[in-house]
């Protein structure tokens, strides 16, 4: 306890570093290859979506944790707003007017007649449904199921990637969908743990299970990312000769850093937490470090998605 506040509560504000860390990733992508301003909005939407997905998965990871439905409703509402902003930027690009000068008629045409707009509208409706359901679940404790949120969140996270530019390649939709879902689960679950878990015992119960889940997620992200990159660029040379390739190379380097960090955490942090030898504050600080590095990767990924 510190001045009557549960230990670790103040430290959770450090999770706010996730947003500037991701924006650093967007800025890095801009310096490497030049990306639209919509990349920043897309990154924020992706982070919100990953967090909602992670919260929905959390009960399957640690059944003792009570799902924070009010937090879920707020984050899902934010996700919905960010998806709307993403749609506006995309419509402005298609219309050639930009987001600030986009007319309602052009926006309506984009939503009704352009496949990307229709997909974006479906995601918008799904995220709105999650927000409404979570708000109702918060008010009615006896009638709620995280599985419904999990389905809607997983569909929303994967719908745009599986219909994007990679869908034109053999098995491209499958690779893109697996990549997006694995990355969002990897980041979202750790963010959810950092937001929800309290006390040394909570980390001792949940962290080893997360570590076991994270390993196949990391493998899926790495494998599908490499394959997608080689297919998209058509070889090794474009990784250094094109802006898209340089951004992807930076993303790959940071992913390697995360792999090394994860290996070290499994040997130190996870073992100590499982033995109740790691204070909750120490676990939270390590989670903040890892999700911040992940956020930089997400910023680069969002820039690639908008550029592609």
UniProtKB/TrEMBL annotation:
Identify the main location: membrane
Domain annotation Copper resistance protein D: ranges: 205-304
Q: Which InterPro entries match?
A: CopC/D, Cu-R_CopD_dom
Protein location: Cell membrane
Q: How does it sit in the membrane?
A: Multi-pass membrane protein
Give the transmembrane ranges: 12-33, 39-59, 71-90, 110-136, 148-167, 173-197, 209-231, 243-266, 287-306
The protein's UniProt keywords, in alphabetical order, are:
Cell membrane, Membrane, Transmembrane, Transmembrane helix
| Pfam families assigned | CopD (PF05425)
PANTHER family per UniProt: INNER MEMBRANE PROTEIN YEBZ
The protein, known as:
CopD family protein
Taxonomic path:
Bacteria, Bacillati, Actinomycetota, Actinomycetes, Mycobacteriales
């Amino acid at each position: 306890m510190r001045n009557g506040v549960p230990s670790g509560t103040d430290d959770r504000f450090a999770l706010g570093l996730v947003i500037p860390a991701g924006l650093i990733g967007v800025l890095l992508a801009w310096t490497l290859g030049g990306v639209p301003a919509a990349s920043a909005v897309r990154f924020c939407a992706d982070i919100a979506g990953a967090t909602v997905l992670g919260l929905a998965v959390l009960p399957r990871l640690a059944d003792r944790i009570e799902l924070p439905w009010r937090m879920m409703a707020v984050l899902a509402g934010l996700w919905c707003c960010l998806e709307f902003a993403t749609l506006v930027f995309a419509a402005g690009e298609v219309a050639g007017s930009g987001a600030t000068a986009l007319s309602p008629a052009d926006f309506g045409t984009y939503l009704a007649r352009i496949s990307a707009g229709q997909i974006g509208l479906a995601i918008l409706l799904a995220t709105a449904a999650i927000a409404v359901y979570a708000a109702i679940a918060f008010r009615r404790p006896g009638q709620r199921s995280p599985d419904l949120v999990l389905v809607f969140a997983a569909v929303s996270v994967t719908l745009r990637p599986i219909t994007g530019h990679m869908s034109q390649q053999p098995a491209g939709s499958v690779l893109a969908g697996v990549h997006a879902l694995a990355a969002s689960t990897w980041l979202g679950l750790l963010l959810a743990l950092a937001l929800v878990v309290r006390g040394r015992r909570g980390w001792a119960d949940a962290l080893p299970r997360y570590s076991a889940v994270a390993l196949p997620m990391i493998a899926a992200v790495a494998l599908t990312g490499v394959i997608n990159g080689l297919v998209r660029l058509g070889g090794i040379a474009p990784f250094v000769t094109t802006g898209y390739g340089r951004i992807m190379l930076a993303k790959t380097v940071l992913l390697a850093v995360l792999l090394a960090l994860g290996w070290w955490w499994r040997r130190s942090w996870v073992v100590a937490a499982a033995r109740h030898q790691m204070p909750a504050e120490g676990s939270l600080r390590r989670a903040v470090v890892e999700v911040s590095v992940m956020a930089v990767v997400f910023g680069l990924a969002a820039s690639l998605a908008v550029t592609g």
